[in-house]
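Weekly sync, protein design subgroup
Attendees: M.S., D.O., the rotation student, P.L. (late)

Item 1: inverse folding check
M.S. brought a backbone from last month's batch and wanted to see whether the design step gives back something sensible before we order anything. D.O. pointed out we never logged the input encoding, so this time it goes straight into the notes. Structure tokens as presented (306 positions):
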């Protein structure tokens, strides 16, 4: 197969792709993120490395690339792109690009709540030396909903700290419990980590009924997508100081000023920071090169969604 024309989102990615590729698989690397006028030759694009953002390109922008054959995402989540990428174009998730940093955000939030670090930091600022009662992951029980790359990394870390972890997925598999078992087991869990993609099965999964089944003091962690949780139900539970939460995503997102989630107790709230750690962009470009090689040599593409 001949070399192909690629399109990436910015000059940094172009420089890295050209360096990593070394002229092996890419004939030309264009730069366009969907904003402004497309560059000359955009109609020759066969492989697109998408911009790293929540909103997908729209169909009109994708239509500017009639030769498009592969769309490689820079995120593990793919649900916003599924409905805009043509069915005859391979859509591939960015699996493995953000797994470690996302797991770190989840575990850091859990430990921050268990060890009373918000209170201890306030005491530090106020010059107060006062020990606080703290909990531990040792002996706790945790559900990790979403047994993919990110979920399994989180499960591994929690187990190192002494937690008993159950992976939960759409269907039962080896060492994975099906969604259908959630309801009867929620009351026994100390930590619930949401690491599943947003689908019709997971949208609103954590609602008032789900939260009511959790024991007092349980921690709900969302590093998935905001709409997996019913925001009003979560806010009510937090307001009653019955459960705690670690939220890196919200619904709505961006979370507007004045929203009640900002001021509720018992939570760690971060602005969707999980994936943007040092090195992720180069990992994305390395994945693109692997896909170019597989495409050129007739091997199946990695992490293909459709």
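Designed sequence read out in the meeting:
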């Amino acid at each position: 197969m001949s070399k192909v024309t690629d399109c990436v989102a910015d000059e940094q990615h172009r420089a890295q792709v050209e360096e990593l590729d070394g002229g092996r698989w890419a004939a030309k690397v264009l730069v366009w993120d969907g904003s402004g006028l497309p560059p000359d030759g955009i109609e020759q694009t066969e492989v697109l490395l998408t911009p790293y953002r929540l909103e997908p390109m729209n169909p009109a922008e994708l239509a500017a690339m009639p030769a498009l054959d592969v769309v490689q995402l820079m995120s593990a989540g793919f649900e916003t792109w599924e409905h805009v990428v043509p069915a005859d174009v391979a859509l591939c998730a960015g699996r493995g690009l953000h797994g470690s940093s996302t797991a770190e955000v989840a575990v850091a939030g859990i430990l921050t709540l268990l060890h009373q670090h918000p209170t201890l930091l306030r005491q530090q600022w106020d010059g107060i030396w006062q020990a606080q009662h703290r909990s531990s992951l040792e002996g706790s029980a945790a559900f990790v909903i979403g047994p993919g790359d990110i979920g399994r990394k989180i499960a591994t870390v929690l187990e190192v700290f002494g937690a008993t972890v159950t992976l939960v997925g759409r269907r039962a598999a080896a060492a994975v419990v099906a969604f259908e078992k959630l309801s009867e087991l929620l009351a026994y869990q100390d930590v619930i980590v949401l690491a599943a993609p947003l689908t019709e099965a997971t949208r609103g999964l954590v609602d008032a009924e789900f939260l009511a089944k959790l024991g007092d003091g349980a921690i709900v962690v969302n590093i998935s997508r905001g709409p997996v949780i019913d925001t009003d139900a979560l806010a009510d539970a937090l307001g009653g100081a019955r459960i705690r939460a670690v939220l890196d995503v919200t619904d709505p997102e961006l979370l507007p000023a004045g929203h009640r989630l900002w001021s509720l107790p018992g939570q760690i709230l971060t602005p969707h920071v999980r994936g943007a750690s040092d090195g992720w962009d180069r990992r994305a470009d390395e994945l693109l090169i692997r896909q170019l090689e597989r495409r050129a040599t007739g091997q199946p593409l990695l992490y293909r969604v459709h």
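Discussion: The CA atoms of residues 203 and 228 lie 4 Å apart. The first strand starts at residue 4 and ends at 8.
Action: P.L. to compare against the previous round before Friday.
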